[in-house]
Amino acid sequence: MDRAASGLRLRLTLAVTLVHALLLYWFVIFPRARRELRRWEKRARAIPSPELRCHALGKLSEEHMSAEGAAAFAILADPPGRKHVVRLCVAFEVMYDLLDALSEEPVDDVLANNRQLHEALPDAFGPSREGVDYYAHHPHRDDGGYLDELLRGCRVAFLALPARRKVGGALIRCATRASEAQTLNHASLAGSAGPLAAWATEQVESERGLLHWWEAAAAAGSPLGIFALIAAASNSSTDEHDAAAIEAAYFPWIAALHWLLESLVDQEDDEVSGNRTYVREYGSKAVACERLGWIACVALADTRKLPQADRHSLLLAGMVALNLAHPGAASDQAREAAAIVEAQMGGLVAPLLAVIRMRRRLGSA
Q1: How far is 96 from 90, CA to CA, in rounded Å?
Q2: Closest of 256, 264, 255, 262 to residue 336, by C-alpha
Q3: Beta strands in 214-345 (DSSP E)
Q4: Distant-in-sequence contacts of 347-355, Cβ < 8 A, 24+ apart
Q5: Which of 361, 358, 348, 352 is closest to 69 using CA atoms?
Q6: String of b and e for 77-100 (b: at least 16 CB within 10 Å)?
Q7: Are 84 and 233 in contact (CB under 8 A)?
Q8: How far is the C-alpha of 306 from the C-alpha of 288, rounded, in Å?
């Protein structure tokens, strides 16, 4: 009886948290995120280079729901800092997606080009470095200051957050890790995956033997931990211990689930574009299902170690739902693994999946 009562209380608590979070998101956060996206779209249309303008507008069109999802981390923020968290999360995700597109251009020195471009990720949280040419190895460079404006938007919003100095170290580590993961991932498409595998394995030394190299690489490339730390920076009570706990919770398990699910539902698109499909490294659907289910279980357990655990759990479920709403989740290869991951989330995904599917229908109407 006590166990049943405890379970009922937990479900009621989660239900109340879900309703409050959805109301906060749709009536406060989402409108701000849409305004930010419209602002960046207007700015992107003024990019002089046709190639760079095409990349920027294409990503804003294709990946706008990723930016809306990034903004959802503002449900963790203190109310006075919420608008800054939305602005920063959206700008960082827009920049992240842009750099991803720019890295796919054919260049003479793929590694140098990717590394130079992705230096922008940790630079979003540090002082401006005058004279840095992120396009130094890229065939197109006249973006009319678009990338610099994204960086400036990130820095201005970050400076408005009261606990920025407390989370700064963890943020720089996460952004630097994501920078190198993206750099080596794109470089590996033109050569061997050996350097990426070796580097990724080093990043999860404490988890050695528990993660395959491609799972570690996926975790390193995900920006979810960055968004969680940005939200934490809005809370004046956040200290270095809190920042370290968030970093440890999101990397590697939550972040790995994020990027592996994206890889799962993007398989067909990745085949066309030539991008790496991490889940293909498993070799069989059965192994992929088993691993993704286990990673989802560990990821959910990690959210429960944090303050605002219910909200972190909902954000994790929202990320899962966003991927399961992708058309690629309906493919034969993805359906079984997606069902196992959803089951591991304990009923959190279904209501969020319904909301996201409704959002997609309204967006296409």
Answers
A1: 10
A2: 264
A3: none
A4: 348/14, 348/18, 348/313, 348/314, 348/316, 348/317, 349/317, 349/320, 349/321, 349/324, 351/18, 352/18, 352/314, 352/317, 352/318, 352/321, 353/321, 353/324, 353/325, 355/22, 355/321
A5: 352
A6: bbeebbbbbbbbbbbbbbbbbbbb
A7: no
A8: 28
Tokens at 259, concatenated: 């990027």
Per-run averaged pLDDT (10 residues), the chain, 365 residues: 56 80 96 98 98 98 95 98 98 97 92 96 92 94 97 98 98 98 90 92 84 96 98 98 96 96 85 77 94 96 94 95 91 88 91 86 63
Give residues with Cβ within 8 angstroms of 55, minimum separation 6.
Answer: 98, 101, 102
Tokens of 362: 């309204």
- Return the domain boundaries, the chain: 17-364
Q: What is the largest CA-CA distance in the chain?
A: 68
Q: Kind and range of the H or E element at 156?
A: helix 146-159
Work out the end-to-end distance of the chain between its first and last CA atoms, rounded to an integer number of angstroms.
49
The token pair that represents 165 in the structure block: 């100095």
Q: Tell me how far apart the alpha carbons of residues 230 and 224 are, in angstroms, rounded to a whole number.
A: 10
3-state secondary structure of 134: coil
Nearest to 295 by CA among 359, 212, 358: 212
Q: Report helix angle 213-221 to 194-203, nearest 10.
A: 80
Cα distance between residue 148 and residue 245, in whole Å: 31
- Paired tokens of 255: 């972040």
Q: Is the pTM of this model over 0.90?
A: yes
Out of 1.10.10, 1.10.600, 1.20.140, 1.10.287, select the CATH number for domain 17-364. Answer: 1.10.600
Angle at which helices 164-188 and 194-203 cross, to 10°: 160
